[in-house]
Amino acid sequence: MYNAKIAGLGYYVPENVVTNDDLSKVMDTSDEWIQERTGIKERRHVINGDGDTTTAMGVKAAKVAIERAGIDKDEIDFIIFATLSPDYYFPGPGVLVQRDLGIKTVGALDVRNQCSGFVYALSVADQFVKTGMYKNILVIGSELHSRGLDMTTRGRGVSVIFGDGAGAAVVTRSEDNSKGILSTHLHSEGQHAEELSLIAPGMGQRWVLDIIDDNDPDDTSYYPYMNGQFVFKNAVVRFSEVIMEGLKTNGLTADDIDMLVPHQANLRISQFVQKKFGLSDDQVYNNIMKYGNTTAASIPIALTEAWEEGKIKEGDTVVLAAFGSGFTWGSAIIKW
Ligand code: UT7
Fold first, then answer.
1. 3-state SS string for 100-165
2. 115 catalytic per annotation
């Protein structure tokens, strides 16, 4: 058995900043409401024509991660791409990254686990590296939400939260067994699948031709739906459980955590978890204020920023945790 470590990190966010005040011009909301309920001050939205797609943003983040890992793109031997907002219905963006980065014909896997997507993807990469099957795996989380949100008062409960962006990591074989990804923990509860979902387009609902014919302005099935309070209540419980599970597996306690990087769902959720584990502000990394919730991209963006700011150092115990649509949730315990 080998060990797997994160050898390089990168992120990319579109330049276009959308403030809460900008949103209040197109829907009945306010900076005060958004900041109080979510902690978000602004987020990034792509601008049509600037070339930013889920894949393109992922590629930009990946280039930085590959360079920082100190390897050539031709040394990547597998690609894993997590997103809920792919460029195409199919094929998924993994193969588009393989094409656009000009990587040789390695395998490309798409992960569909929404806010938990990066933790799931990291877990898959970890297993492939640990078994010796692959040496360098490119893991990407990227999302383009803004084109799919209901930017009217009807959609305000969801649309103010989400933002666009991408993060990437190179997961590499390590001979040093004392460092790297110690364990990952994945869960799901499909019973609540529809509580945070985007039902259409999906073959389970209607004939594609009917959907095209309908053109019904009252049809909201094309927009994400979230039962906000229900999701919130489940999130705080599952975040805590899965962090505890990871700590216990490795014989650790909350006192051993140097840095918790939670999925940026809502600053109130992060603060709840922080309090529950008795962590200081320096031990939890949050950037939802700047980027909103970027689902599968949020952990790799936050992890990259934390690392760039020198808040993650060699030997640190880093905990990643996520919860979201599915419901799915997971954690990763890493010795940096
Ligand atoms: O990343 C995946 C996981 N996602 C999450 O973890 C999100 C979890 N949920 C949440 O973060 C919160 O539930 C939200 C931030 C989405 C909503 O906050 P809330 O405190 O649960 O608000 P609410 O949905 O209960 O709505 C309260 C009121 C309602 O008005 P009434 O019925 O009390 O008159 C809403 O219509 O706030 C209204 N409202 C808004 N007002 C201004 C909803 N959205 C907005 C808005 N601006 N954007």
1. HCCCCCCEEEEECCHHHHHHHHHHHHHHHHHCCCCCEEEEEEEECCHHHCCCCHHHHHHHCCECCE
2. yes
Pocket flag, ligand 1, residue 197 (CB < 6 Å): no
Residue 286 falls in the annotated catalytic set? no
Last residue of a domain, which of 136, 154, 174?
Answer: 174
Mean pLDDT of 84-109: 97
End-of-domain residue from the set 158, 174, 190: 174
| Structural domains counted in the chain | 2
Instruction: Say if residue 26 is in the same domain as residue 143.
Output: yes
Point out the ligand 1 atom lying closest to the alpha carbon of residue 265: 1
Task: Give residue 328 CA to ligand 1 midpoint distance, Å.
Answer: 21
Residues 39, 34: Cα–Cα separation, whole Å: 7
Are residues 262 and 153 part of one domain?
A: no
Q: pLDDT tens for residues 26-84? A: 999 999 999 999 999 999 999 988 899 999 999 999 999 999 999 999 999 999 999 99
- Answer yes or no: do 163 and 142 share one domain: yes
Q: Is the CB of 156 under 6 A from ligand 1?
A: yes
Q: How far is the CA of 185 from the centre of ligand 1 (A)?
A: 29
In terms of domains, do 61 and 198 share one?
Answer: no
- The CA 93 to ligand 1 mean position distance, Å, reads 31
